[in-house]
Design brief:
Helix content: 25-40%
Number of helices: 12
Shape: globular
Number of strands: 21
C-alpha cells in the first residue's frame, strides 16, 4: 500500500485542490500589484508551484506559451545550487533562453525555495514579461538582433535575495541598464509578492495537514494527471502523422525556413519529432528547446484533455525530439528576441498533422503569430517617455461544426487581453482611429474562418519609433476538408503627407512623426468544408453583416444576392451541382 492510499480520499482531494488554488492566488497577487499594462492588462505572465524536485504541481497562466517553463526554471536552479545551496529567504532570478526555462530575455523568472521545519519541500516560481531589460531597442525585444548580447540584460540563475537579504548591487545594475526602471523594478516586486504568497499558503497547508500528507497528495496529484492523460491518449487514433510549414523571415529578408514534425501516437506515448527543421538563423526568430516544449504542451492538452489542471504528471506520456542548434532549438549566442515566430510552429505543426484525423478537437489554421508591436516616443502632454508593448488579436480557423472565432489571441498567448483603447489613449502619445473586424471574406467554407481585426494608431507628435513582427504575412492560415485559406497578417504604415509605406510583415524602428498612422491588420482564419455547402441563410447573413461581398457570395458560395432586396436571386450551377 502506498503512502497516498493510506490518506482518506477527502483529505487528499482537499490538499490537491488547495495546491491548485495556491497557484491561482499567486497569479492574482502578481497581476494586482504589477506596474506594467503588459502584465496587469495583457496578463503576459505565469506563476505556480513545483515540488522539491522541480516537478510542476500547479500553474496559473495568462499566456499558454509559459506552460512548462516554470519546471525548467526550478530544475536549472537545482542544477546550479543544489538543495544544500538554497536557504529560507532566497530568491533566484533568471532569464536564460537556452537552458533556464527561458523564452527571450524580456521574460524574467523568479524562483523561491519553500522550507518546512528546515527541509526543502517545494518551490514557488513565476515568469513575467518585463517592459524593459535593456538592449539596443526600446522595449528590449527587437526584430533585427543577430546575437543575444544585443537583446538586454542576462540573469544567469543568480540570487536576487540571499537568506532574506536583497542583492542591492544587482538592483542598482538593473536600474542603470533599463529605460523604464520604475516599471521593471515595480514588476519585479510584484513577482516577489506572488512568490511570498505561494510560500505562505504552502506553509499553512503543511501546518494544517502535515508534511507527509501534503507530499502524499502531491504524488497523487502527479500520478492522477498522468492517468488522465493516458486514458485520453488511448482514445486518439494510433499512427504516424506528418506536417510541414515555413517560418517566413528572420528579420533580414532571408527565408522562408522549412520546419516539420512527425507525430507518433501509441498506446503509451505521444512523440513529436521535429528533426529536419532548418538550423538556427541569423535573426531573432529562433526558439529555444524550452519554448518548443511549452508550445507542444499546449497542443498536447488540446488534443487530450483541455480542461485538465496542468502539472508535470499530465505530460509524462509526451516526448519532444529535435535537432540541436535548429530554429526550434537554438543555442547560445543565437538571437531569440522574437522567438515566438518559430516557437508557435511547435503547436501549429502538430495541430496541422492531426487536424484531419481528429476534426472534433482541432480546427483549421489560425493567425499563428503573436503579431507583437513596440511603439515608443514622448507623450505630447506630459512630456514623459512612453512605450507600448502588446500583442494583437486575429482570426481562428473554422471547425467541423462551427465558424471560426473572431478577434482572438493566437494559441501561444492563450487567455490574455488587449490594452483597452481608453488606457492606450490616456497613457500613450497616440490616438486609436479604428478598432474593427477585417471582414475580408477570406477563409470561405461550409463553416467560415473567423475574422481578424484592424487596429490603427495615429501619432500626435514627432519623434516616435515603431517595430513589429507579423508572421503568417505571406503564408496564410490553412483551410481544412475543402475549406479555403484565410488571409495574412499585415502592418501598414501611412505617412501624414499621403505617402504610404509598402505593406510589411516585419519592421524595425520605423520613424513616425505627427499624424503618421500605423494600421495593424490581422489574419482571417482558414475555412472548413466546401463553401458551396454553406447554408444559403448563413451566406445571406454574412453579406448583410458585412463579412463577405456580393462577388464573394457568388464566386465562393455560389449564391447571387439581390443588393436592393437582400434576398437570394440565383443559385449558380456549381452550387446546384452539389444539390
Amino acid at each position: 500500500m502506498t503512502t497516498g492510499s493510506m490518506i482518506d480520499p477527502f483529505t487528499r482531494e482537499i490538499v490537491k485542490d488547495s495546491l491548485v488554488a495556491i497557484g491561482e492566488e499567486m497569479f492574482y497577487s502578481l497581476a494586482r500589484t504589477s506596474m506594467s499594462p503588459i502584465i496587469y492588462e495583457v496578463l503576459d505572465f505565469a506563476s505556480g508551484l513545483t515540488d522539491a524536485k522541480g516537478q510542476l504541481l500547479t500553474q496559473g497562466n495568462g499566456v499558454t506559451g509559459f506552460i512548462g517553463m516554470l519546471t525548467f526554471m526550478v530544475k536549472n536552479t537545482l542544477d546550479k545550487f543544489g538543495p544544500e545551496g538554497l536557504h529560507p529567504g532566497d530568491v533566484i532570478i533568471l532569464n536564460d533562453p537556452y537552458g533556464g526555462g527561458g523564452s527571450h530575455l524580456s521574460d524574467v523568472g523568479l524562483v523561491m525555495p519553500i522550507f518546512h521545519e528546515g527541509e526543502l519541500v517545494a518551490f514557488a516560481a513565476n515568469k513575467a514579461h518585463w517592459t524593459e531589460v535593456g538592449g539596443k531597442d526600446p522595449g528590449s525585444w527587437t526584430t533585427d538582433s543577430t546575437e543575444i548580447y544585443q537583446e538586454g540584460l542576462q540573469f544567469p540563475t543568480i540570487k536576487l535575495f540571499n537568506k532574506g537579504e536583497i542583492n542591492q548591487a544587482l538592483i542598482d545594475l538593473i536600474e542603470a541598464n533599463v529605460r523604464f526602471p520604475n516599471l521593471s523594478l515595480g514588476d519585479m516586486w510584484a513577482q516577489i509578492a506572488g512568490l511570498r504568497t505561494g510560500e505562505r499558503r504552502f506553509g499553512e497547508l503543511c501546518n494544517k495537514y502535515g508534511k507527509q500528507t501534503v507530499q502524499a497528495s502531491i504524488d497523487f496529484l502527479l500520478d492522477h494527471g498522468e492517468q488522465v492523460s493516458r486514458q485520453q491518449l488511448s482514445l486518439l487514433p494510433a499512427g504516424v502523422y506528418e506536417a510541414e510549414d515555413e517560418v517566413e523571415d528572420d528579420g533580414f529578408g532571408n527565408g522562408p525556413f522549412p520546419v516539420r514534425v512527425k507525430v507518433t501516437i501509441t498506446a503509451d506515448e505521444f512523440i513529436c519529432d521535429f528533426r529536419g527543421s532548418h538550423p538556427q538563423v541569423k535573426g531573432p526568430m529562433n526558439a529555444s528547446y524550452t519554448a518548443l516544449v511549452s508550445s507542444v504542451r499546449t497542443i498536447f492538452l488540446a488534443v487530450t484533455n483541455p480542461s485538465q489542471d496542468v502539472n508535470d504528471g499530465v505530460f509524462r506520456p509526451l516526448r519532444v525530439i529535435t535537432d540541436r542548434k535548429s530554429i526550434l532549438s537554438a543555442e547560445r549566442p543565437a538571437a531569440v528576441s522574437t522567438y515566438w515566430e518559430s516557437m508557435q510552429f511547435g503547436a501549429e505543426l502538430v495541430w496541422k498533422a492531426l487536424a484531419p484525423v481528429i476534426p472534433d478537437r482541432l480546427n483549421a489554421g489560425h493567425l499563428l503569430s503573436v503579431c507583437g508591436i513596440i511603439l515608443s516616443g514622448v507623450h505630447p502632454v506630459t512630456q514623459e517617455p512612453y512605450l507600448i508593448v502588446e500583442p494583437s488579436v486575429g482570426g481562428w480557423g473554422a471547425g467541423s461544426d462551427m465558424d471560426g472565432l473572431a478577434g482572438q489571441f493566437c494559441i501561444g498567448d492563450g487567455e490574455t487581453y488587449n490594452v483597452p483603447v481608453e488606457v492606450a489613449e490616456a497613457r500613450y502619445g497616440i490616438r486609436v482611429d479604428e478598432y474593427s473586424l477585417t471582414a475580408d471574406g477570406a477563409g470561405a467554407g461550409e463553416f467560415r474562418g473567423g475574422s481578424g481585426v484592424i487596429r490603427t494608431y495615429r501619432t500626435l507628435s514627432d519623434g516616435h519609433s515603431f517595430s513589429g513582427t507579423f508572421g503568417r504575412h505571406e503564408i496564410v492560415p490553412w483551410g481544412l476538408n475543402g475549406g479555403l485559406a484565410g488571409s495574412g497578417n499585415v502592418i501598414e504604415i501611412r505617412k501624414a503627407d499621403g505617402r504610404q509605406v509598402q505593406q510589411l510583415g516585419i519592421c524595425a524602428r520605423v520613424p513616425l512623426d505627427q499624424g503618421d498612422v500605423v494600421r495593424l491588420i490581422t489574419a482571417t482564419g482558414g475555412g472548413y468544408g466546401n463553401p458551396l455547402l454553406r447554408p444559403a441563410d448563413k451566406v445571406l447573413a454574412d453579406w448583410k453583416d458585412g463579412y463577405i461581398s456580393l462577388e464573394q457570395a457568388r464566386d465562393l458560395y455560389g449564391l447571387v444576392i439581390d443588393p436592393a432586396t437582400g434576398h437570394l436571386e440565383q443559385i449558380t450551377a456549381a452550387r446546384a451541382a452539389l444539390g
